[in-house]
Specification:
It is a single chain. The protein is of the alpha+beta class and about 270 residues long. It has helices at about 5-30, 35-65, 70-95, 100-105, 125-140, 140-160, 175-185, 210-215, 240-250; strands at about 185-190, 200, 220-225, 235, 270. It has a 5-stranded antiparallel beta sheet with strand order 3-4-1-2-5. Strand 1 (about 185-190) and strand 2 form a beta hairpin. The longest helix is centred in the first third of the chain and has 29 residues, at about 35-65.
C-alpha cells in the first residue's frame, strides 16, 4: 500500500515549485516600484513560500523513515529543499533591503505634491535595481530544486532500488535535467500556426525542444496526444521511462548546479 505521506510530500513539492516560480516571476516583472505598496506584498509572498518550504522539509524528514527506502535519496531531497530555503531567505533579505530606497524615492506626505521622478541613475534607483536583480537571480533556481526533490521521492516510490538490469541510453546532463522535470509533469509542448513548436514549463528552467526531442527519440518520453498541440500537449514518461526513473534520478542526488538564463515572463523556451 503506498505511503500517503510520500504522495502528500510530492504534491507539496510540486506546489512549492509553482510558488517559487510565481515569486521569481513577480520579482522579474516588478522592476522599479511605483511605491512600497507593491514591495510589501511581494515580501510577504516570499516569506510565505519560505514557511511552506520549512513545512516540506519537516514532512520530508518524517516521511524518510516510512516509504523513502533510499537514505541517499532522502538526504538528497532534503538537501535540495534546504538549498531552496536558503536562497529564498536570501532573496527575501534583498527585498527587505530595498525598502529604504523605495521609500526614499516614492514616499511623500499625502498633502504634499508628488515630487518629479529622479533620474534612473540615482543612488536609490541603482540600489533598487541591484536588490531586485539579486532576488530574481536567487529565486530563479529554487523551483527546479523543489522539482528535483520531488523527482527523488517519486523515483524511490517507483521501485525499492534502481534496477541494475536496465540498459539506459546515454543521456547528457541537460537531458537528465529535462527528464526530471518531465517526471514531475512540469513540461508541455505547444505549437502556434506558422511557428515552430516551443516548450511551456511551469517553472523557469533551461529546457529546450532539442533536448526533449532527444528524450523522445530514446523512448523515454512521449506526448499526451489527447490534447492538440495548440492547447499544449503534456510530456509524460513512457513505460520504459518509468522503469528507468530510479536509475536516472537516484544517480544524482546533489542539488542542481545549473545556471540557466533568465526565463522570460511567459515561461516559454524554444
Amino acid at each position: 500500500m503506498p505511503d500517503t505521506r510520500s504522495e502528500d510530500l510530492i504534491r507539496q513539492l510540486r506546489s512549492l515549485a509553482e510558488d517559487f516560480a510565481d515569486d521569481h516571476h513577480l520579482t522579474l516583472c516588478t522592476g522599479l516600484l511605483d511605491d512600497t505598496d507593491i514591495l510589501m506584498p511581494l515580501i510577504s509572498r516570499v516569506r510565505n513560500t519560505q514557511s511552506l518550504t520549512n513545512k516540506a522539509i519537516t514532512l520530508a524528514l518524517a516521511t524518510g523513515d516510512a516509504a523513502i527506502g533510499s537514505t541517499a535519496a532522502r538526504r538528497g531531497a532534503i538537501e535540495h529543499l534546504t538549498g531552496a530555503a536558503r536562497q529564498g531567505n536570501d532573496a527575501g533579505g534583498h527585498l527587505l533591503a530595498a525598502i529604504p530606497a523605495a521609500t526614499a524615492l516614492h514616499h511623500t506626505p499625502r498633502s504634499a505634491p508628488r515630487p518629479p521622478r529622479t533620474p534612473r541613475t540615482s543612488a536609490n534607483h541603482l540600489a533598487l535595481r541591484r536588490h531586485f536583480s539579486a532576488a530574481t537571480a536567487l529565486l530563479r533556481d529554487t523551483p527546479v530544486m523543489c522539482l528535483d526533490a520531488a523527482a527523488l521521492v517519486t523515483a524511490t516510490l517507483t521501485t525499492s532500488a534502481p534496477d541494475s538490469g536496465i540498459v539506459l541510453p546515454r543521456l547528457t546532463d541537460p537531458q537528465r535535467a529535462a527528464f526530471r522535470l518531465i517526471s514531475q509533469r512540469a513540461v508541455r509542448i505547444r505549437r502556434r500556426e506558422g511557428q515552430p513548436p516551443f516548450l511551456a514549463t511551469s517553472v523557469p528552467a533551461p529546457t529546450i525542444t532539442a533536448t526533449v526531442a532527444a528524450l523522445e527519440r530514446k523512448g523515454l518520453v512521449t506526448r499526451d496526444t489527447r490534447t492538440g498541440p495548440e492547447d499544449g500537449q503534456e510530456l509524460l514518461l513512457t513505460p520504459a521511462g518509468q522503469r528507468a526513473l530510479p536509475a536516472i534520478v537516484l544517480r544524482t542526488t546533489a542539488p542542481s548546479r545549473t545556471t540557466p538564463a533568465s526565463a522570460p515572463p511567459q515561461r516559454r523556451t524554444r
